[in-house]
């Protein structure tokens, strides 16, 4: 019997038992939907993170206080040569002061852009007349280079100018979501308006374009104030730490710039040659790599959930095929009586099992891509089709059909034609 004949018989059998077959297909589709859907969503999140960090530039790094190494997964020891140097306990948690950050900016001679910033608040509410935002606005004090280093662009208005930065004027650059919440869909309406943060009023001079969520905070819920204004208005304690951002023109210069920055800041911090660094440097892509590592773990967990679901599908499909063998025992006897071999009978049931599994897989792939791209749509990441995982899902479904169909097919192939013909 030809392959096409076996395939036709498989289709006929599937069509003849629509309810039972449909339930089995639905079970398989559920597992594949979960697998492909979550993988597609993860790829969407990955693309969004990559786009956001690429926008900020992979050719940059940030100098932070030593205690921030815990957040970024850093080691407590620094390897130099053949010995390990520890940061002195008395010198370990010294914050980066404004004077130190300013001294670094003035001394750093490498061809790079340097920015000093200070996170004044992470839970502020911004007011305009009777409107207000949610209390999740980040207030950042920054200099003229902060916008450039972070890859921000403007929907309306401009960046902070040198006079405003020098005098610490009450002016602000606001994120896209803040402008939309307070002033409606036209960003230009925010320019020149007075907003209030706490009890202090600020004149809006710029509205940034939407850049989305970087995974740490939403840049669209960000207010940028002149650094000198933040130093005057907000309480900066002895434990408060500034951060220094550096961006080089080419990524090939990044490692050299980091070495140069390390040496320069060691001089600023007055570290002896036998002392390890008491500050922490993170590349722009370090956080992205951390997030990607977390997404890999989620991906493997998702694969495990999908396998468990498909294991249940194997059991269900095998049960369906065993019922099919029992129902078609007399048909098997007739086929053998007119010359069908055991191999032909076996292939009929194997093809039917694989066909049911592939139909469930195809349905699951369609729903999985649709559900996953809903996340992509929300993140503005574009349409995602995980071809590698789709190919893997198809192969997995074929394997499920094969495993579930082997025993029923072998049982059908071994039936005695005489006994099968007398079966009622």
Automatic annotation (TrEMBL):
The chain crosses the membrane at residues 21-42, 300-326, 354-375, 387-407. It is found in: Cell membrane. Keywords: Cell membrane, Membrane, Transmembrane, Transmembrane helix. GO terms for cellular component: plasma membrane. Pfam families: FtsX, MacB_PCD. It comes from the Bacteria. It is a multi-pass membrane protein. InterPro entries: ABC3_permease_C, MacB_PCD, Macrolide_Exporter_MacB. Residues 305-417 form the ABC3 transporter permease C-terminal domain. One of its GO terms (molecular function) is transmembrane transporter activity. Coiled coil: none annotated. Residues 21-260 form the MacB-like periplasmic core domain. Belongs to the ABC-4 integral membrane protein family. This is Putative ABC transport system permease protein. The lineage of its organism: Bacteria, Pseudomonadati, Bacteroidota, Chitinophagia, Chitinophagales.
């Amino acid at each position: 019997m030809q392959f096409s004949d076996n395939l036709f018989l498989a289709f006929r059998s599937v069509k003849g038992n629509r309810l039972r077959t449909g339930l089995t297909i639905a079970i398989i589709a559920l597992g594949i939907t979960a697998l492909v859907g979550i993988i597609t969503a993860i790829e969407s999140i990955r693309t969004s993170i990559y786009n956001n960090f690429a926008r900020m530039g992979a050719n940059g790094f940030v100098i932070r206080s030593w205690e921030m190494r815990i957040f970024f997964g850093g080691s407590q020891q620094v390897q130099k040569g053949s010995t390990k140097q520890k940061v002195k306990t008395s010198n370990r948690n010294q914050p980066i002061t404004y004077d130190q950050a300013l001294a670094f900016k003035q001394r750093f001679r490498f061809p790079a852009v340097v920015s000093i910033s200070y996170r004044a608040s992470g839970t502020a509410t911004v007011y305009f007349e009777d409107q207000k935002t949610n209390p999740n606005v980040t207030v950042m004090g920054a200099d003229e280079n902060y916008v450039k280093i972070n890859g921000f662009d403007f929907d309306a208005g401009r960046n902070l100018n040198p006079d405003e930065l020098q005098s610490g004027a009450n002016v602000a650059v606001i994120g896209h979501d803040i402008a939309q919440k307070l002033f409606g869909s036209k960003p230009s309406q925010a320019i020149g308006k007075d907003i209030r943060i706490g009890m202090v009023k600020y004149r809006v001079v710029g509205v940034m374009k939407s850049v989305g969520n970087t995974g740490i905070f939403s840049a669209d819920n960000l207010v940028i104030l002149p650094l000198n204004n933040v130093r005057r208005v907000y309480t900066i304690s002895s434990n408060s730490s500034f951060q220094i951002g550096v961006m080089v023109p080419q990524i090939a210069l990044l490692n050299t710039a980091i070495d140069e920055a390390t040496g320069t800041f060691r001089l600023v911090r007055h570290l002896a040659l036998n002392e390890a660094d008491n500050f922490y440097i993170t590349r722009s892509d370090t956080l992205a790599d951390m997030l990607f590592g977390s997404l890999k773990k989620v991906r493997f967990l998702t694969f495990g959930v999908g396998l468990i679901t498909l294991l249940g599908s194997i059991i269900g499909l095998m049960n369906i095929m065993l019922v099919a063998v029992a129902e078609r025992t007399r048909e098997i006897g007739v086929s053998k009586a007119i010359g069908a071999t055991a191999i032909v009978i076996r292939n009929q049931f194997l093809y039917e099992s694989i066909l049911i599994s592939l139909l469930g897989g195809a349905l699951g792939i369609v729903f999985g891509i649709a559900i996953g791209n809903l996340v992509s749509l929300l993140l503005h990441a574009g349409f995602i089709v995980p071809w590698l995982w789709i190919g893997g899902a198809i192969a997995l479904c074929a394997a499920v059909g094969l495993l579930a169909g082997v025993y029923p097919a072998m049982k059908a192939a071994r039936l005695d034609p005489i006994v099968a013909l007398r079966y009622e």
